[in-house]
Design goal:
68% helix; 6-stranded antiparallel sheet; single chain; alpha+beta
């Protein structure tokens, strides 16, 4: 008999070893492997092997079947918790956090990931903590909270450096670089990408090197360094061709084509875009096809082949509409999945309770014999009380039955109300999505009317624009016009910052009016003096809003605050006029304020103010002078403390502290300081700050 048990123990160990070998070498890349592993689960006796198998199954189904992924993840958590297997518990919590992050349930995702961090800290699992910090960073990045994302990625990097894990170091540096790239901080992003590149080269990770070079190429393209961008893209192209990845090839070919288009080498741009388009068709990747259609439309438009440009633009619109429809369906599906997951969690919790109940029943059976003996001794004594207990229980049962009937009726009412609420929520969700789509389309129009920071840097590099709409569309806008001499050097620069009444959609309408009128006044009527521009803008806003008439249907306070400066470069002079917006000039760390007029553009003003001209001031500027134009949004932002604004005083102090720094550093420090002050508070108003340093 002893030999039999030894043989059974050896057989069990052999099965566990076989399963571990299968997990290690297959990594469940196919459905067949996953099905085979699921069948082997019942044969696993070692809890660590079982947790590993459940975790691999949960990971496999994460991109295929969310419900199954949750089921296996919960089972892994249950087994790991039962046996105090802390490593497996961290893995399970991390998986569940990534799962909820994937479907947009960020609150639940954060809870699971913080539990994983807590256990990793308690038992000093530094390598697991480093991976969880990456997951938390990616969660914040998906919510566009780049400051918190960077904080977590930097903690991850610090642990990776302590562990001397080169792969983890490269991953963390690449994640941090991606955040700064999305924030528009290209120089900082480039530093981190270069660090990741050095590490990938040290590891001889050819594909990793190619991906980082592609990211660096995108930054050089944004900065107008096209030769450097092409060198990086071409290296990536060679690696992708060697590997044979159609998706990777399509991406880098489109990047190269875009770069040649910016260089106005239209034949090369068309050749690369057509190759990328063919690969996108081959893999049937709709996102790649969307980019390819847009790239071909832009290229043919540049070649004046408007028939082909229209064709590809039409294909772009059709596919985009299809993707928007698919996204709406995905959102509805994600909501359904979330409801299914909630139900599944309840079922799993109920299953765990039943399992514990069975264990209790087994324990009770051990005392059954003793219990019978005691009952036999007490049966005579208890016999006289049975009748009275029976009568009492009968009355209690009747009352419970009545209460149960009432509870069932109330439950039916609650279920009916829940169905009505669910139907209303579906209607609200549908209307909200339609409204959001319309506003997003309006944002595209608004963005198209503003110069990008790359275009602004081509005009004058020593300038930054911090532009943060409160909502999708903004009530703040800026306007820039430059004149160059025969040698291509900057001769005149006209810069306008405007803060319209309201924000969101109402403010956006005012920005479109303002930009349209400015184009008419400056471009068509050739009026360039700031004071005269304000005068004409005031007339047209007042006229279009009918603010002088008695049948005006709008708010008579509608209008905008505007600051205008015209810089005559060779004369070193700035002509400034402001409508309730100032100009700040920092010289030798001293602040000079030009306040402008106290009346706004448009709005209900006395007749005397309407007829009065706007004040124009002439400022003699010196090299290293720094000029700031801004709206009131930055100073009006609320912080973590209730009802406490940042204030204009703090804003001045912040400008004092950064005015001697390079312009890109100034923008980054303004943004980081704003996020630090804002904390968990929502943005109060649209924010616009433009800084310019005199370099003549």
């Amino acid at each position: 008999m002893a030999i039999f048990f030894q043989l059974r123990y050896l057989l069990s160990n052999c099965i566990s070893c076989l399963i571990i070998f299968r997990i290690a070498y297959s990594q469940i890349h196919t459905q067949q492997s996953a099905d085979s592993l699921a069948k082997l689960l019942s044969q696993i006796t070692d809890y660590q092997t079982k947790v590993l198998a459940l975790h691999q199954l949960a990971t496999f189904f994460l991109e295929r079947d969310i419900t199954k992924s949750l089921d296996y993840g919960k089972q892994a958590l249950e087994v790991a918790t039962k046996y105090n297997y802390h490593f497996g518990t961290i893995q399970a919590y991390t998986h569940l956090g990534n799962l909820y992050s994937q479907i947009g349930k960020y609150s639940e995702a954060t809870q699971y990931l913080l539990k994983a961090i807590q256990i990793a800290d308690e038992y000093n699992y530094q390598q697991q903590k480093q991976k969880v910090l990456n997951s938390i960073g990616l969660l914040y990045r998906s919510q566009k909270n780049y400051t918190k994302a960077i904080q977590n990625f930097r903690q991850s990097l610090q642990i990776a450096e302590q562990l001397k894990d080169k792969v983890a170091i490269a991953d963390a540096e690449n994640f941090i670089g991606s955040c700064y790239y999305l924030m528009g901080e290209y120089e900082t992003a480039l530093q981190y990408y270069n660090n990741a590149l050095s590490t990938r080269k040290m590891l001889k990770d050819e594909l990793g090197v190619a991906k980082v070079l592609n990211n660096i190429g995108l930054i050089y393209k944004r900065q107008g360094k096209y030769a450097e961008a092409l060198a990086n893209f071409e290296h990536t192209l060679k690696v992708q061709e060697k590997i044979g990845s159609a998706t990777g090839l399509a991406i880098v070919l489109d990047n190269i084509g875009d770069t040649y288009l910016l260089l106005n080498d239209l034949e090369k741009a068309l050749a690369f875009h057509q190759r990328g388009f063919q690969l996108a068709q081959k893999v049937q990747n709709k996102e790649l096809l969307l980019d390819a259609y847009q790239s071909l439309a832009n290229t043919f438009a540049a070649k004046k082949d408007f028939e082909q440009a229209y064709y590809y633009e039409h294909q772009f619109v059709l596919l985009q509409d299809s993707l928007i429809s698919t996204e709406i369906q995905k959102r509805l599906a994600d909501e359904q999945i979330a409801q299914t997951l909630a139900q599944k969690e309840k079922e799993l919790e109920l299953s765990m309770q039943k399992s514990k109940l069975k264990e209790m029943q087994l324990a009770q059976n051990q005392y059954f014999t003793l219990f019978i003996s005691i009952v036999l001794l007490l049966v005579i004594f208890l016999g006289l009380q049975i009748y009275w207990r029976y009568k009492h229980n009968k009355e209690t049962t009747q009352k419970l039955q009545e209460a149960l009937t009432i509870l069932q009726l109330r439950t039916q009412e609650v279920q009916q109300q829940a169905q009505e609420i669910q139907q209303q929520n579906l209607i609200i969700t549908e209307n909200h999505e339609k409204l959001t789509d319309s506003i997003l389309y309006a944002k595209r129009i608004q963005d198209a009317m503003l110069l990008t920071e790359q275009e602004i840097h081509k005009i004058y590099p020593e300038m930054f624009v911090l532009y943060l709409p409160k909502d999708i569309v903004s009530g703040d806008f800026y306007w820039l016009d430059a004149q160059k001499d025969a040698k291509g050097k900057l001769e005149k620069l006209l810069l306008i910052v405007a803060d319209c009444t309201g924000h969101g959609v109402p403010g956006a309408f005012m920005t479109l009016l303002g930009q349209s009128f400015l184009n008419n006044i400056i471009k068509e009527r050739k009026i360039e003096q700031p004071a005269l521009i304000l005068k004409e803008l005031d007339k047209q806003i007042t006229l279009i809003l009918q603010q002088k008439t008695t049948h005006n249907l709008g708010d008579k306070h509608d209008g905008m605050d505007v600051a205008i400066m015209q810089w005559e470069v060779y004369a070193n002079q700035i002509h400034f006029a402001g409508a309730k917006r100032p100009l700040y000039l920092f010289r030798n760390e001293q602040l000079i304020i030009y306040k402008g007029d106290k009346k706004a553009i448009g709005g209900d003003k006395p007749a005397q103010q309407i007829s009065e001209p706007f004040l124009q001031e002439t400022i003699q500027v010196l090299p290293k002078d720094v000029i700031y134009l801004f709206s009131d949004g930055y100073a009006d932002q609320f912080g973590d403390k209730p009802n406490v604004k940042y204030t204009l005083k703090r804003f001045k102090e912040q400008l004092f502290s950064i005015c001697s720094q390079p312009m890109n550093i100034q923008k980054r420090q303004l943004l980081e300081n704003l996020h630090l002050w804002q904390g968990e508070q929502r943005q109060t108003d649209d924010i616009l700050v433009i800084g310019l340093q005199i370099k003549t």
